[in-house]
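Box S1 | Example of a co-folding query
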Amino acid sequence: MAEWPPMTHAHLSLRQILVKIQSVAQENGLEKPVLAVFDLDSTLFDVGPRFEKVLLDFTLQKSFTEQFQEFAEIFQNIKVIKGDWGLKDVVERAGRNHFQKNKIDELKVQNFRRQLTEFWTEKFFTNEYLEFDVPYKGATQFVHSIAKTNADIVYLTGRDQHRMGPGSQKVLEKWGFPVQSPKQQLVLKPHKDIDDALFKRDWFQKIDSQKYSQIWFFENEPVNIHLIRESSPHVNIVFFDSTHSKKAHPPDDLPWIQDFYWNEEE
Ligand SMILES: [Mg+2]
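Box S1 (continued) | Returned holo structure for magnesium ion
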């Protein structure tokens, strides 16, 4: 991939964003609230722990012990780090030296990769494993601070209702995110095969923007950001710099944040 251009993104700290939202809310009163929309995976929630739990459970299966015991070393210190995307980044980093050092038969490595991918795909996108997600620093408090301004809060996710609906609701409640009021809504895809970016684009186009004094959207995936920016230019977008598919460059002229922790002194 070509080098990304030097970063010249707008400097707007999280605290400045919050102050902006608070002052807009104050000016517009109850009639025209702010709408704040948050993506879940890799924006409010770090999915690394869920990822690691799926890998651990793969090694606990009987079939792993029987067929792949020589791969166990790979999993001993396996870690999902910032920027990892999908299974490949994590396992290839952990396994590369091991496969070469131990001269493991290529066919066996292929079989191992196939079975791991199948297991991971089957488990990662399920209600059952969502409880291992952990919010990024300050995320819960930040969403509460915005909700306190009478803003409408929407959690807009590429997760689908069938496989991940109840688990998403549960994990938001577990970590104390505001989800109880009618002004707070979780929006999931009705079907897993719908494209994430198109789903989110269409959602933004369908809402009644006139109801709101300002609309904000916090998202980690550049593909989604570029599409929504183009189709709904009135939306204030904040790029959450965690990990993404690398299918598009991150926006270099929008605010970037890496956590939801703000310093009152800033
Ligand atoms: Mg995401």
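The CA atoms of residues 87 and 117 lie 7 Å apart. The two ends are 36 Å apart (CA to CA).
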